[in-house]
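Q: How do we represent a protein-ligand complex in a form that can be generated token by token?
A: Start from the inputs.
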Amino acid sequence: MSAESMDKLVALCKRRGFIFQSNEIYGGLQGSYDFGPLGVELKNNLKKSWWKSMVYERDDIEGIDSSILTSPIVLKYSGHEDTFTDPLVDCKSCGERFRADQVPDYCKKEDLTEPRHFNLMFKTNVGPIEDGDSFAYLRPETAQSIFTNFKNVIDSTPHSLPFGIAQMGKAFRNEITPRNFIFRVREFEQMELEFFVKPGEDEKWHKEWTDLRLKWWENQGVSKESIELYHVPSEELAHYSKATVDIMYKFPHGLEELEGIANRTDFDLGSHSREQSELNLTAKVDVNTHSNAKLAIQDTKTGDWFVPYVIEPSAGVERGFLAILNEAYNVEKLKDGKERTVLRLKPHLAPIKAAVIPLKRNNKDLVERAKDIKNELQSLALGRVLLENSGNIGKSYRKHDEIGTPMCITVDFQSLEDGTVTIRDRDTMKQERLEKKSISDYFKNALNN
Ligand code: ATP
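Then emit the structure tokens for the protein with adenosine-5'-triphosphate bound:
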């Protein structure tokens, strides 16, 4: 099941503290959102899961974390200064501006101006002098600094092809029409891999990465049925791309891109390299007169230099968050005729891993025992464990169903006598009595599955 509308998700996010409108008390800043106490946990868990699958579980990928401020020279040679634009139209009737492919039905075609190119990059002043020359861009993607660090990483690690560099972090785009909650925003996070391969092996690796990424999304709880692959037709391809496959997800507002997986050929390394004329580049690149690095690899047998091709799986954290939330959202009819909302999040993504609930709020002994259990489980470092001291068990269960906590652990008077506790499972709502010594193992097993 999934949410019947975006409004349901927006309401849940606000009510429970996942996501708030940025600067809300001053009327809000359009296209920006803040992650609240539960949102930051889910978002971090999602990023951790990506990093684990990319960097820790493989031996051919390294991670980096580079600066957001980016020199204009980088974005000149990458092509962003000239081509990172969207077509902008004005509606003479309602006075609003739109991206040309996103004009709402209420605007008539004859009221629209001819499309103009609008660059999506944010510029900011650098240093104390505002003379217009000393500026930097807020990076519009994390990818470019992976390319500019290619030689640094190759020189400081033992890798040969194929190998990859992964990065996650903020990206900024001055979207003309941010919309659909956190789907299209001006400040967001990306999880990007640049996987460098020998030319000729690129098509095989493109297919391999498409399969791996689909499997990963499934492991995050995004069902196959909600996904479609879009093989971007040649006339729609970005200038650097030989082939692109978009992973499209059925968001509450429609089928749209969750992640793009592109075969970027030798365009990026070729664009940022010196001595381009000696590199037999296949991509069409601008002549680079600034770079001081040869971004190429020497064939150990022939001694020839060549530029690796690159496969890029590029996913948005916010879009992933939204898809996962939507997939997990369930409203269930209970036997007594009532309803419950339950987020069936995979345990590794759940913001709270377990809630420990003393049966009575003001009973010192119960609270102390609950605190001990909380501390014991927290020390396992599997994520946040919460002491839920509200004193209302029914309400606590409902809350933790709604925020996706996999288990609630209740400490009652019997617990004080024999150390046992009641564990309630989020999905089945079944309760079982566990001995004191089994609590940690139960918790570990539940989270590692
Ligand atoms: P779109 O066509 O939807 O504008 P895009 O093709 O420009 O997206 P890419 O440049 O391929 O997007 O960026 C890679 C990923 O970054 C996207 O798949 C998406 O998940 C995420 N992303 C891009 N722009 C935004 C945005 N404005 N807000 C949130 N996520 C974004």
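Residues 173, 175, 184-185, 188, 190, 257-260, 314-316, 318-319 surround adenosine-5'-triphosphate (CB under 6 Å). The radius of gyration is 25 Å.
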